[in-house]
């Protein structure tokens, strides 16, 4: 993860700058024009950590998402409803992706994986 960089000459903040001819990422001081080559190409990383409550709320609303594919070839084991939405998602502790089904019955919301 990159951290804030400061000018060696005047201690002001260095900002990312592109050298288009040499195709390099530089850090440049806007005060004294000092430049240095970046040691890696990550300028900024934004990590988002959702709370458990937010992730649960998002999964509850999945069945109402019109952009997700739907199938009538499965039956919910909880309520026997014959329609579900499905999507692929990573499974914690396992490699690869799993096919996740969510029951479309608004009073159920059961989730299972294939």
From TrEMBL:
Species whose genome carries this gene: Cajanus cajan (Pigeon pea)
Residues that, per the record, bind Zn(2+) 1: 7, 10, 29, 32
Record-level Gene Ontology MF annotations: DNA-directed RNA polymerase activity; nucleic acid binding; zinc ion binding
Keywords, in A-Z order: DNA-directed RNA polymerase, Metal-binding, Nucleus, Transcription, Zinc, Zinc-finger
Function description: DNA-dependent RNA polymerase catalyzes the transcription of DNA into RNA using the four ribonucleoside triphosphates as substrates. Component of RNA polymerase II which synthesizes mRNA precursors and many functional non-coding RNAs. Pol II is the central component of the basal RNA polymerase II transcription machinery. It is composed of mobile elements that move relative to each other.
Positions of C4-type zinc fingers: 7-32
Family designation: Belongs to the archaeal rpoM/eukaryotic RPA12/RPB9/RPC11 RNA polymerase family.
Sequence ranges assigned to domain TFIIS-type in this UniProt record: 72-113
Oligomer status and interactors: Component of the RNA polymerase II, IV and V complexes. Interacts with NRPD1.
Biological process, per Gene Ontology: maintenance of transcriptional fidelity during transcription elongation by RNA polymerase II; transcription initiation at RNA polymerase II promoter; transcription-coupled nucleotide-excision repair
Any Pfam family matching the protein: Zn_ribbon_TFIIS
Organism placement in taxonomy: Eukaryota, Viridiplantae, Streptophyta, Embryophyta, Tracheophyta
Top-rank taxon, per record: Eukaryota
Positions of Zn(2+) 2 binding: 76, 79, 103, 108
Record localization: Nucleus, Nucleolus
Gene Ontology CC: one annotated term: nucleolus
Keyword flag Lipid biosynthesis: no
Protein name: DNA-directed RNA polymerase subunit
Main location: nucleus
Coiled coil residues, start to end: none
């Amino acid at each position: 993860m990159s951290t804030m960089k400061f000018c060696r000459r005047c201690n002001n903040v260095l900002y990312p700058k592109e050298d288009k001819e040499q195709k390099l990422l530089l850090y440049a001081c806007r005060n004294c024009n000092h430049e240095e080559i970046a040691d890696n190409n990550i300028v900024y990383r934004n990590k988002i950590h959702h709370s458990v409550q937010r992730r649960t709320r998002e999964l509850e609303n999945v069945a109402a998402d019109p952009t997700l594919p739907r199938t009538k070839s499965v039956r919910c084991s909880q309520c026997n409803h014959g329609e579900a939405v499905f999507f692929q998602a990573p499974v914690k502790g396992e490699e690869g992706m799993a096919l996740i089904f969510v029951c479309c019955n608004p009073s159920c919301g059961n989730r299972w994986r294939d």
